[in-house]
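Deliverable D5.2: sample structural annotation.
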Amino acid sequence: MRPVQLVPAGVVLLALGAIAGAAQFASPATPGPGHAAAAQQVVVTSAARACPPAAGGGPGQVALIAGSSSAPGSGQAQLAPLPLAGAQLRTLNPITQTEPGLLSLLTIPAGQTTSKKPAPVEQGWSVTATGTLAQAMEAEEASGSGLASVRCGEPGSDLWFVGPGQQGGAAQVQLDLMNVDALPASVDVRIITDAGQLPAGPDTGITVPPHQTVTESLSSFAAGASVVAIEARTTTGRVVADVSDGSSHGGTASWLPSTAEPSTQLVIPGVAPSGGTAGLYVVVPGSAGARIAVTAITAQGRHQPFGTQAIELPGDSASYVPLTPLGGTAALELTANVPVTAGVLVPGSGLGAFTAATAPISEQAIVAGNTTSSGLGVTVALSAPAGQARVRLTETATTPGATSSQVVTVQAGHTLIVPAAPPPGAKHGSAFAIVITPLAGSGPLYAARVETHGQNTVASIVPAVSALTTITLPPVRDSYDAISP
């Protein structure tokens, strides 16, 4: 049984107020005696994300799409700085965007100290939207040409990452924690390597002040390790977390996408072929040993890359398993006897490109930062592990009215690779967004966007994550379980 967690009185009052407000907004009917309250489907009217500090503390670029051009209305999307905790920085004005359904590339300036000789410093950025612009909002940190390198994540209370340690080529490992809320957050960081779980150290009880960023170097914990799994778990509040790995050969750091919470069933989309050997990183966070079966979902169908052999790992451990060529871009389906989580590294520039376990797409998913400039090629990998899926793919550019759409079918147990390009009317080589929408009656769909240089060099992989327009509120009952499960 999970221990009872005491909730501060202020948090209880805020949560009760939020629940009362949501109930008033949804106008649910009062259930009569003996009737259970029904869940309420409500429209998203507020959304928040956070983007990690740009490398080196310099300026950055955010690819942002908010709302839908087919449902215009009131609202605003805004980028605001999240300075490093305790840093004295010059005030920067928020950046606003109000055009619904239109992709924007917004430049975020470097943070500057208040000293006589200002120097650039790292700072994160919050992305918030209200009204109709909050629906299906998506933001990614991108290059100057619009190529997404890392998704701006949602706040959460339990976030996981898994990738290489120092012996796996990651000379530098940095954790960024960003707080987009008005209350402070306290974060415990748990680290598991191929040598087992590390004892609790100075990265326990990290305080992230409201609207600020805290960065922590985890390089010392990764020293001597081939695999490093990181869990950022809050005891109060919530945060957005990002992890970057720097190669010992220099160059741009690679971002680890957050992976799905540990589960006995996982799907990792967008495992692309490359000129080197891709690797599967798996973590077993519990004390019981794991027995993991791996199935590749390819364009030719399902097959077992390890034959009938299962991966066996002890509890509280992490491991690396090299992957043989999968016959093109594929998804990996993992089935285990105990909860695990996992990611894949595909060799490329720097350390390479990472993809990670995700949830199936609900409503739609959006990848905002895509480009075909500088010889880049864009494909969308669609995987349907169970039932057949019909999918609408829509490309939208920064040019008003520039859009295109097609419907494709993904057979059950297969992966379909669909090339993508800027829609007609867009400037040559300009950035564009891809909207991935499973149509009614489709089986579970997983997707990722893959950008490549030529045939064998992977530049970027972005696992597709649902961008919701509606959410389901659980029924409100006479119990504190509604706010502190």
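Annotation notes: The longest helix spans residues 9-26. Confidence is low (pLDDT under 50) at residues 1-30.
The annotation will be released with the project's public dataset once the embargo ends.
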